[in-house]
Amino acid sequence: MPLDVILLVLFGALLHATWNAIVKAGSDKSLDAALISAGGAVSALPFLAFLPLPHASAWPFIGASAILQFAYFQLVAAAYRAGDIGLVYPLMRGCAPLLIAATSSFILKENLSGGALAGTMTICAGVLTLALEARRGSSRAVMLSLANACVIASYTYVDGIGARISGNAVSYTLWMSLLPPVLLFSWAASQRGTVAVARHVRRNWWRGLIGGAGSIASYGLALWAMTKAPVATVAALRETAILFALVISITVFKEKASIWRYVAGIVIAIGGLILKLA
C-alpha cells in the first residue's frame, strides 16, 4: 500500500476516534449521534456543486448505505450508553475488518497478498485481545458492539463497491451523507417530540458540526483509499483508530485500562507496520 494512502487513512482514523469521543462525552448520545450525521451532511453541501454526480449505477448503493448508516448511528449511541469507549470502540470497529477479510474473496473477488493478509489478521488479533477484558464490561455493551461490527462490515462492502462504480469517490461520499440525518432526526422526533429535539439541536449544534466534519472527512478518505487498495486492507488499517481511542479513553475520560488494552494497542501498531511493508 502506498505511503500517501496509509498516511491519509491514519489521519482519517484519528478523525474517526475523535468524533466517537464527542458522542461518548455527550449528555444525550442518540441525539448527539444524529447531530454528528447532520453535521457531516452540512459539511458536504457546499462542495456538491463542484463535483460530478455519481453514475446512475451507484444510486442504489447510496440508498442502501443510508439505511445501514441509520442502523450504525443508532447502535453507536446504544453501545456508548452501555459501556466504556475503551471497550466498545475497539470491539465495534475491530471485528468488522475480520469479517471483511474472511469474506472479501467471495464478495469482491479480491485475494489479499500474504503480507496484506498477515497485517490484516495481526490488526484483528490486537482488537480481539480486548475481548479478554470483556468480562469487566457490560455484556449488553459487548453484544451491541458486535452487532454494529456486522453493520459496519455491511456498509463497508456497499460503499466500497458504490464508490468504485460512482466514477468519483468524493462525490459518492458527499451524496451518501445526506439521507442518514433525515432518517435519524425523523426517528428522534417520533420518539422524543419535535420540541425536545429542537432544544437539543439549539444547545449542541456546534458538537454536530465539528464531529460531522470529522466524520465525513474520515469516511471520505477511507472510500478514496478503497479505490486505490483492497477493501479488506483499507478497512483493517482504518481500525488503527483504536489506538487513538485508547489514548482518548485514558487521557480524556480517565477510564481504567487493563494491561490487555496496552497489549492490543501494540499488536495493532505492528499490524499497521506489516501492511506498510506488504
Q: Helical region count?
A: 12
Beta-strand segment tally? 0
* Low-confidence segments: none
- The share of residues in helices is over 70%
Spell out the helices and strands N to C.
Answer: HHHHHHHHHHHH
If you average the pLDDT, what whole number results?
83
Q: Which structural class is indicated by helix and strand composition? A: mainly alpha
Strand content: under 5%
Structure, explained:
InterPro entries: EamA_dom, EmrE-like, Small_drug/metabolite_transptr. Pfam families: EamA. Its main location: membrane. One of its GO terms (biological process) is lipopolysaccharide biosynthetic process. Helix content is 82%, strand content 0%. It has one domain. Helix 3 packs across helix 8, helix 4 runs antiparallel to helix 11 and helix 6 crosses helix 7. The longest helix is centred in the C-terminal third of the chain and has 33 residues. The radius of gyration is 18 Å and the shape is globular. The protein has twelve helices and no strands.
